[in-house]
Amino acid sequence: MRALLALALLALGACATTAERAPRWSIVVHGGAGVIERANLTPDLEAQYRAAMQRALTTGGGVLERGGSSIDAVEAVIREMEDDPLFNAGRGAVFTAEGRNELDASIMDGRTRAAGSVAGLTRTRHPISAARAVMERSRHVMLVGEGAEAFARSHNLEEVDPSYFFTERRWQQLEENLRRNNLPVPRRPANAPPAPRAELTYPDDHQFGTVGVVALDSQGNIAAGTSTGGTTAKRWGRVGDAPIIGAGTYAQNGVCGVSATGTGEFFIRVGVARDICARMQFNGESAQEASDAVIAEVGATTNTSNEAGDGGVIVLDGRGQVAWAMNTPGMYRASQTAGGQPVIQIFADEQ
Ligand code: ASP
Question: Check: CATH 3.40.50.720 for 23-346?
Answer without folding.
Answer: no
